[in-house]
Fold this sequence. Notes:
By secondary structure, this protein is mainly alpha-helical. The chain has helices spanning about 10-15, 20-30, 40-45, 50-60, 80-85, 105-110, 120-130, 135-145, 150-165, 170-185, 190-205, 210-215, 220-225, 230-245, 250-260, 265-285, 285-305, 305-325, 330-340, 345-365, and strands at about 65-70, 90-95, 95-100, 370-375, 380-385, 395, 400, 410-415.
Amino acid sequence: xxxxxxxxxxxxxxxxxxxxxxxxxxxxxxxxxxxxxxxxxxxxxxxxxxxxxxxxxxxxxxxxxxxxxxxxxxxxxxxxxxxxxxxxxxxxxxxxxxxxxxxxxxxxxxxxxxxxxxxxxxxxxxxxxxxxxxxxxxxxxxxxxxxxxxxxxxxxxxxxxxxxxxxxxxxxxxxxxxxxxxxxxxxxxxxxxxxxxxxxxxxxxxxxxxxxxxxxxxxxxxxxxxxxxxxxxxxxxxxxxxxxxxxxxxxxxxxxxxxxxxxxxxxxxxxxxxxxxxxxxxxxxxxxxxxxxxxxxxxxxxxxxxxxxxxxxxxxxxxxxxxxxxxxxxxxxxxxxxxxxxxxxxxxxxxxxxxxxxxxxxxxxxxxxxxxxxxxxxxxxxxxxxxxxxxxxxxxxxxxxxxxxxxxxxxxxxxxxxxxxxxxxxxxxx
Length: 430
């Protein structure tokens, strides 16, 4: 690289420490004094360009992924400008946009943005990006946050969270929801409570039960402040679910009972709360209470024409019948599982399927109140967990499957987000 003899290799190595990018920048400008830092080497490439052109470089540096080709006209970037910028050797075209040749180059240019100058640059980018379709809510969120635009940061973070959840990226959904919450007006308790509930659901989907419980319980005073008894009932309904899976049955039942009492004047929330209470009763072997809860839920589902509530109640009723040995109940439960899968209610389908597996395990030697689970070491484990099956989960490209003794694997496509489909057991509110 330095074979022409115009630079002393030892001096270059001493200054650059052998950093390949730094050495390349130095080699491209052999007639200049050796820069002491990568930043100096990069900025030396921009010494001859006009201020307006340098501002375009700063705009590009404010877009870490890329500066979309489609926004260039809205930013006033024409072909002559692009030619001048290309001559600096700092930019490349990649995936439909302009990118810096190296992240160190981007950081060097970004470091020149003065105090208070970053927000206006991001506002320009945000305004331009809003004019093109399809929009990328994650990118829009990035720029809205950097522009300190609370309204647009909240809106786009919520859109990005929904998109992340639909693709199964629940950890990213959590991050976007937390961003939305940080910008949401504190004077809007109902909206904040709804956001916290959504956050709790996504935290549950990432197996973070502790944070999920904290998030949903944080909504209780907000629903009180908003005077929304139905919302408070739904929050207790979610808390019952999270506490149950957190191995705190007593607390779960307390939340479920509270949800029922709060929803007396709201039929849908009351039906959802009764399904939850019936589900917990089923897990505790109190089948009389389960049947009573299902009867209420079925009546409400029929009156309101709410198919999802009726389907969830039906799954628990069929599972109860199966536990009681009612003829035809297993076939009925399988039918309901397939219907839940067809509706993308994956978590509800899993609930029904685990009980089908439970019945299979009982037929191969497990006791009437325990299900067998084979641990990764191969040793059996007995318990009354909802998700017990006689097999191991199997993973493959784009799917997961469960193998049950004597049954074909049940394969669940993972191309859709469970977060928008699971809604089990509550269904009154999202």
